[in-house]
């Protein structure tokens, strides 16, 4: 049986290391020298979104054409005004209401004062404010949202008995 001598082991290891170094040099040479210009793929053309026809969409969803035209109508009087607070006199019927118009900051109005041209605060009672035209015809009744329900259950503070 043949046993390798230490001299052959060193020679074999040296040959393997030089072969790895040569392979690495050839790989880097091909990688750096063989590449001309980077190839870029042109991006796909972007499609613009299609314009939506509200009448066609309404008919697609099962609505009648007249209903689609009604949804584009001007906002109602009650949707433009938001009642924030009420201070009503119990016996006199006089008082004031805090009203926000078209999403602007709320302002207080006394009964009988003009909110905007042609709209007057006619009366306040409880949690309601009645808007009327300058001629006295009621236009809308604004109501405050219901108060939150009182919390039920035991108090977090323990009371000794």
UniProtKB/TrEMBL annotation:
Q: Which UniProt keywords apply?
A: Cell inner membrane, Cell membrane, Membrane, Protein transport, Transmembrane, Transmembrane helix, Transport
An example of a Pfam family matching this protein is: T2SSC
Subcellular location(s): the record lists: Cell inner membrane
Q: Does the keyword Membrane apply?
A: yes
- Might you report a single GO cellular component term? plasma membrane
Query: Carries keyword rRNA processing?
Result: no
The ranges of region (Disordered) come to 135-161
> Main site of residence?
membrane
> What protein does this entry describe?
General secretion pathway protein C
Organism source for this protein? Ramlibacter cellulosilyticus
């Amino acid at each position: 049986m043949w046993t390798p001598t230490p001299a052959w082991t060193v020679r074999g290891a040296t040959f393997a290391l030089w072969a790895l170094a040569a392979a690495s040099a050839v790989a880097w040479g091909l990688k750096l020298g063989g590449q001309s210009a980077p190839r870029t793929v042109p991006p796909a053309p972007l499609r613009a979104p299609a314009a939506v026809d509200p009448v066609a969409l309404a008919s697609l969803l099962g609505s009648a054409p007249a209903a689609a035209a009604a949804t584009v109508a001007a906002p109602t009087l009650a949707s433009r005004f938001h009642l924030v607070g009420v201070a009503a006199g119990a016996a006199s019927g006089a008082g004031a209401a805090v009203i926000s118009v078209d999403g602007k900051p709320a302002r207080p109005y006394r009964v009988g004062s003009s909110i905007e041209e042609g709209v007057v605060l006619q009366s306040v009672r409880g949690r309601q404010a009645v808007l009327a035209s300058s001629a006295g015809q009621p236009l809308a009744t604004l109501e405050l949202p219901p108060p939150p329900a009182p919390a039920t259950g035991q108090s977090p503070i323990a009371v000794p008995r």
